[in-house]
Amino acid sequence: MSMNTSGLNGVMQNAAALYEKSRACLNNFKSWVQLDSSHLSDGRQLAVKYFTVAVILFFAQILFGLLAATQFIYPGFLYEILDFNVNRMIHINAMIVWMLFGFIGSVYWFLEDESGTEIVGLKLGNIAFWVFTGAVTLVVLVYLLVQIGPGKDSSLWFINEGREYIEAPRWADVGIVLVVLIFFYNVVATFSKGKWSGIAGVLTLDLVALAGLYVAGMFYMTNITHEQYWWWWVIHLWVEATWEVLVGVIMAWSLMKLLGVRRKIVQTWLYIEVALMFGSGILGLGHHYFWIGTPEYWLTIGGFFSALEPIPLVAMVVHAVYDAGTHAFKNGNHPALAWIIAQAFGNFFGAGVWGFMHTLPQINIFTHGTQWSASHGHLAFFGAYATINIAFFYLAIQQWRGNVWMGGGIQNAWRWKWALALLNGGVLGMTIALLIAGYEQSFIERAVEGSTWGGYFAAQNHPSFQNAMGWRLFFGGMTFAGFILLVWDLLTIGKSETRKAPEIFES
Amino acid sequence: MNETPLWASESFWKKTAIWVTAGSFLILVVLTMDSLSKTSAGSKRVPAYTVINKKIDYQYNKELHKSMPVIGENEFLFGKEYTEDEARQLVDLGKKTTQAKNCMNCHTLLGNGAYYAPDLTKAWLDKGWISREMREDMMVKFLMDPENNARTFGSNRKMPNLDITEQEARGIIAFLKWMSSIDTNGFPYNFKTIEAEE
Ligand code: HEM
Ligand code: HEM
Ligand SMILES: [Fe+2]
């Protein structure tokens, strides 16, 4: 009895000491970064909360990617402790969630500016943020500690749904939908109170589609053909339709604010992009219906429409580069502008070029389900979506420091430049390594060996595949180094800057 | 004077965007209804779950220039003929288990998933199970204790123990057998099954 209470006392004392210590650490950190939130409106304070969690999850993504990549080379590494499937699940789930956090943050970032009024449901928005963050933490803890369950519905409800990218257990699905509805309410109510615009209209309709699509992926089905059919509705219609348009919206606003491009031009471009993107991307969905049991007409429809998908991506490059050029790159936030240009090219190469290369069924029958997909997946997700979020992190930090000058001639500019170079170089390096591995698999496993298990391992054991895995890990390390530098730069850039950035107006 | 041409007008592109989106989506909805009905369990492309009572093969069809599933005479699974209900329940248990154990984050199913372990689309038909007589037994043993029945083909990559029960293992095998009978438009290409002669 007394043993127990003294043990309990000890735990309490330890906990109290730990709490004091972490509070002291946090205060030290705060006085070191010197960020002053009074520079930000209430809406933007909410936005930077989302950005902060996004950066932390980005870190988790890279960390677990490195663990998974290591297991390709040393299969015994963390075997039956953190198996490949656990690491990989956290790697790609953290990616989806940090990007969603980043997007929500970006929209909150420009919502007040674009609508001309204060966010209507700020309190609700804050509650939703904490609920979302808490739920994500709990989901990840269960992934790490429980990992798998018996073949029962309860496993799908509380542990994971075991479906790539949308593994989150169903209770979390329900929570995500609620949080997105609150976010959606805030967007619509704020525009309604303030003023609507073309950008606002596209954003609203796009968010309806984005949230609605998620629901398509929430159900369990015995019939795997049906299940994968709906699963692709979420994944493909997110990344190749609604997310692309969301990025178009964010980009449209940024080009106005960063470079002073005229609203009429930006909005006309936005409508063109929507027409091209949805016109090709919606039926382009068919490139995932070649081999899952669905009828043969998808070979034609999917091949044709997905082959058109690069067109809007070309248009977006032209748009961004043309605008940057005509405005002579005159702008007070060089890192943000650089990441926006990186987005235009990354989107074009990762999604447009890499996607196009394997989208025709005659080729896809050999590349399907090989590292070829992973090569494309890395360059596309990074190029299209990581970049734009990073650009917004830089926009946010600039205002958080009180709209300081972040153009030419700032202190320690090497940091953002090296972070840019290492991150892009690292991902590009991984992409090339995976491309080599993917070609090797297409030839040896698919074409020569006919995709048997023996064929699979013949390809995995081949020296060119194994070398590629080594290079992938090397470039993963480079990506990691770039990420560390990025965080360091975000925390310090503009700290001792006294010059203000000029206000930019529409030309 | 100086009128904006149509191709540069905001309202023209706004209308175009709306019509193109609505039109594409409508076509997708129609195709979805058609595809779902043509792939319900028991359709020509996706056989009924009772197909687990039959012999399944996958053979190159010269006229169609692709491999097609071939469903043969009776070949019971675990020596038992399943009724429609029993077959559905068993396949369902297997499918649910593959999700609860997160198979898809190492393997691909119908070519979708992760690339750390072999594709499961035609796993039932794979030559790795040596012969039809040994297959069922080997598969149950492997699934329940993959560490000690490892099939690494010289790669040192071992499947971890996922606490799969015997009943779950049988479910998974039924699910794999059923999945191997789906008409996947010739994917994988050039696949030689356990039935094929050398
Ligand atoms: C930013 C936009 C895009 C992103 C983020 C993206 C991402 C991905 C990812 C992650 C996969 C692998 C899915 C899996 O795990 O099985 C994939 C598959 C695929 N993507 Fe994309 N993609 C994008 C755009 C495109 C475009 C524009 C095209 C075509 C022009 C394309 C063509 C394909 C094809 C054909 C596959 C199927 C690969 C297979 O056979 O498994 N993608 N995409
Ligand atoms: C340190 C850097 C990284 C490493 C070492 C890494 C490693 C990996 C590994 C090992 C996989 C599993 C592939 C397989 O199943 O064989 C994977 C999948 C994936 N990673 Fe990464 N990754 C890194 C960074 C990133 C980044 C920055 C992104 C995007 C922003 C990304 C997006 C993805 C996607 C979309 C997949 C799924 C691909 C597919 O299924 O086709 N990764 N990564
Ligand atoms: Fe796609």
Overview of the molecule:
The complex is a heterodimer of chains A (507) and B (198). Chain A is mostly helical and 507 residues long. Chain A has 17 helices and no strands. Chain A has helices spanning 2-33, 42-73, 84-115, 122-145, 153-158, 170-193, 198-216, 224-259, 263-284, 297-308, 310-326, 334-357, 361-367, 371-400, 413-448, 453-461, 463-492. Chain A is globular and about 65 Å long. The mean pLDDT of chain A is 94. Chain B folds into 2 domains: 11-38; 49-179, Cytochrome Bc1 Complex, Chain D, domain 2 (Orthogonal Bundle). A two-stranded antiparallel sheet of chain B has the order 1-2. A two-stranded antiparallel ribbon of chain B has the order 3-4. The model of chain B has no long low-confidence stretch (mean pLDDT 95). Chains A and B meet through helix 2, helix 3, helix 5, helix 8 and helix 9 of A and helix 1, helix 2, strand 3, strand 4 and helix 4 of B.
Kindly provide the radius of gyration of chain B, computed on alpha-carbon positions and rounded to a whole number of angstroms: 23 Å
What fold name goes in the CATH topology slot of the largest domain in chain B?
A: Cytochrome Bc1 Complex, Chain D, domain 2
Oligomer: heterodimer
Query: What is the averaged pLDDT score of chain B?
Result: 95
Percentage of residues in DSSP E strands of chain B? 5-15%
Number of strands of chain B: 4
Fraction of helical residues of chain B: 25-40%
**What's the total count of β strands of chain A?**
0
Largest interface: A-B, 86 and 86 residues
The gross shape of chain B turns out to be elongated
The tally of helices of chain A reads 17
- CATH class descriptor of the largest domain in chain B: Mainly Alpha
Helical residue percent band of chain A:
over 70%
Structural class of chain B: alpha+beta
